[in-house]
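Structure first, sequence second, as always.
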């Protein structure tokens, strides 16, 4: 049974909304949790409380809450309760994934030197602006960098805290430890390989797919599913099937993200068109295009692709020309085929698991939703 924790008391309102609207339930839970942590921060120092305000706004200011949603349906797929104290505890543990996500996004934006996220200034840009508005000494960018590193680290620490303080029993937390540990390391490994690929110009589809597996599939779908299932005490066969489903859907999710990074509408995605090109990301989309150009011995296409990657001054006209080139080389079709194949294999793995309703239907619908989207 769950252990008592102060922040899970008087939570009957959460019991009623857990499965009715998961993103809203996660938002409600995180709002309460961050309010508590903000008060602790302000007690340490008002300036730190102000910084935590910005972190809280970032966490609560957007996102699809996919990771907690997959963790929840992993919990339900393994027989976890839909309502009651155990359900609330499971949702609290699942919601910690949003704090891990916040850490990854804050640091990712810093590494990529991105200006916007979800249509708003990135955290390091926001603190650089604060430096200028406050007439601080020193260089605004350096202050922004330092603040973003520290707040990203803080989000990661609070993610660990929220899992441990979720109200789940000791046995459940022990079972969940392995996917939680693996996920945190894998996402850092994927991030490092992403950075390394940009500096050593590794253009192979195999390298790009490995980054997809570690940076996206692991912490977006596969490990959250396993986390929820382990909390509920899933049997090995269910864990294995959910793992295969999650690995394939996670890669397909990232492949769709790669397409949106070049072809997405900025009004919908919240990021400038072609930002992945400006950041020099060696995505599967780019790797497929390079591979195709090499096979055709199209040196002009290779030169064009290499010329736009990492060009911070890339203008909309060149982005549009690059879109045409990626289409002409067959890279877009190749990525779409991969998404279709991975989604199909994931659905087959899910069916083989014999997951009970409503989890089976919800996971199948989630698989389509995250691989066929516009943002």
């Amino acid at each position: 049974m769950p252990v008592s924790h102060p922040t899970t008391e008087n939570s009957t309102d959460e019991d009623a909304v857990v499965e009715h609207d998961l993103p809203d339930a996660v938002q409600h839970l995180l709002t309460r949790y961050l309010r508590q942590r903000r008060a602790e921060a302000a007690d340490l120092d008002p300036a730190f409380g102000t910084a935590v305000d910005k972190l809280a706004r970032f966490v609560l200011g957007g996102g699809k809450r996919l990771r907690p949603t997959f963790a929840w349906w992993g919990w339900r797929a393994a027989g976890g309760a839909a309502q009651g104290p155990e359900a609330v505890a499971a949702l609290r543990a699942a919601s910690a994934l949003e704090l891990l996500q916040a850490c990854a996004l804050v640091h990712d934006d810093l590494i990529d030197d991105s200006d916007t996220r979800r249509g708003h200034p990135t955290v390091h840009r926001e603190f650089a602006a604060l430096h200028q508005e406050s007439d601080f000494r020193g260089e605004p960018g350096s202050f922004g960098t330092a603040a973003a590193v520290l707040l990203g680290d803080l989000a990661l620490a609070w993610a660990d805290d929220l899992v441990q303080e979720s109200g789940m029993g000791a046995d459940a937390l022990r079972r969940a430890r392995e996917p939680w540990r693996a996920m945190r390391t894998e996402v850092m490994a994927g991030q490092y390989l992403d950075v390394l690929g940009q500096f050593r110009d590794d253009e192979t589809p195999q390298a790009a797919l490995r980054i997809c597996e570690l940076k996206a599939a692991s912490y977006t779908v596969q490990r959250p599913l396993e986390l929820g299932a382990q909390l509920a005490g899933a049997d090995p066969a269910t864990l294995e099937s959910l793992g295969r489903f999650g690995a394939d859907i996670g890669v397909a999710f990232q492949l769709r993200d790669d397409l949106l990074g070049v072809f997405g509408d900025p009004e919908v995605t919240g990021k400038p068109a072609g930002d992945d090109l400006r950041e020099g990301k060696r995505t599967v989309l780019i790797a497929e295009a390079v591979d195709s150009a090499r096979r055709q011995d199209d040196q002009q296409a290779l030169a064009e692709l290499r010329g736009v990657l990492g060009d911070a001054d890339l203008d909309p006209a060149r982005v549009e020309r690059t879109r045409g080139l990626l289409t002409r080389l067959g890279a877009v079709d190749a990525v779409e085929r991969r998404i279709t194949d991975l989604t199909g294999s994931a659905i087959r793995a899910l069916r083989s698991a014999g997951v009970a309703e409503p989890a089976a239907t919800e996971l199948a619908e989630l698989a389509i939703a995250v691989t066929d989207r516009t943002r």
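Margin note: Residues 170-200 form the longest helix (31 residues).
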